[in-house]
Amino acid sequence: MGQDISRRAFLKGGFAAAAGVAAGSIPGAAAAVGPEEQTQLATLLDISKCIGCGACVEACTETNARKYPNPKKPFPKMVPARARVSDWSDKQDVTERLTPYNWLYIQHASVDINGEETELTIPRRCMHCVNPPCVKLCPWGAAKQLENGISRIDPEICLGGSKCNAVCPWDIPQRQTGVGLYLDILPNFAGNGVMFKCDRCYDQIEAGQLPACIEACPEDVQTIGPRADIIKQAHKLAREINGYIYGETENGGTNTVYVSPVPFEELDVAIEKGKGKPHLAAASDRMADANTLAAAMVIAPLAGIAAAARKIYNYTRKSKERA
Amino acid sequence: MKTAAVTLTHSNRQNRSMRYLYVLTVFCMALTGFGQMPIYKRYYLSDIPGFGWLANFWTTRYVHYAGAALLLAIVAYMLVQHVILLRARFKMTPSGYLRGILLLGIVLTGVLFVIKNFPVLVFSPEFIIALNLSHLGFVMIFLLVNLYCLIFKKRWTKAR
Known about the structure:
The complex is a heterodimer. Chain A is 36% helix and 15% strand. Chain A is built from 13 helices and 10 strands. Residues 1-7 of chain B have low confidence and may be disordered. Chain B contains 5 helices and 2 strands. At the A-B interface, helix 4, helix 7, helix 12 and helix 13 of A face helix 3, helix 4 and helix 5 of B.
């Protein structure tokens, strides 16, 4: 179950075929993993294979350019002035970070492997979390998670409030002002454009094709398949190269899984980080923090009922005593 | 009879405390609920000393969840008390029914939100949009109705 099988399966008929191949090849897999592990598609990126040629970046732009923003200028005056314009329309050729016009870029890390200074290159784009905060916490439902694990932002609905960016552990969604629904509502007072990020070529996957970055890669850096299968492959690869995995558990698990020959702590130190330049550090499952309170919501009404019952009992007892 | 009943519902220290707790919880829920939209920082509200936490989406979400648990406990307490102890002598007013229905709408859509936020894919994107708008809609109407009831001194119940 590797690159060939997932590619062939995709080209034959998309995810259903890929999932079928995966399920058939791993006895007992269906029973051993959660439902999202079977329905969500993940990608495995073998960092040791990447040569940093940028073919994936070019293919991404070529394929997704029609989805890029085309803002109207001049932009509406923002009130209050604290809400600042985010304009990348004059910097569309920037490829050294994520922007509304560049959804994938290559990070560089100079690390020591077996005493030898080695340059590693890492394709970075949306991690497509299993439980994506950008989707789950979007106040309008503009960010969506598809059954196949893709998170995408609907440019027709997004108001550009950038909450998705604020809750994303990796600073992935990027804003472009002067485009989107907010222009038709209260452009001066609410909203500020549309957020853009990798949608893992959801439309190509729907059509049974591979995402552009996977298809274009000359080194077969990426493999795509059902998450359970991808995790197994990641562990197998990590064992073979004595490597490390990123994305299996980060932020509760992501559908972009990296395998590196050096620890990710070292890579994180070596890469340039900042706005639009995601880290490779540990990322705790932030969605789980409040989710644990759901149990309290089940117990709370019972506590309320118990308190009321106690009061009713006391009142009834006192009434009888008075009588 | 009416005097005794009023004593039972409105002057009872426990009920008065519960009412204050209810008002405080609803205020906290509204504050943190609106905090789920990116507005407090933009409109300088989180610049007010002591309100900086309102700009942190994770904090407001956590407090909103904790408040929801408290609100559920209060609603359950009030509901059971009304049905078993007070219904014989007090009846719901039309504004009481309206507020009850709106509160039920807020709670039900809120429960669906909690389910949605688990790492499962239960609802379609279209349903989630409807959920967002209906939760906010219920809250807005609920707050407006409460403002009306506060101004015109409308109670949830009145003596039969």
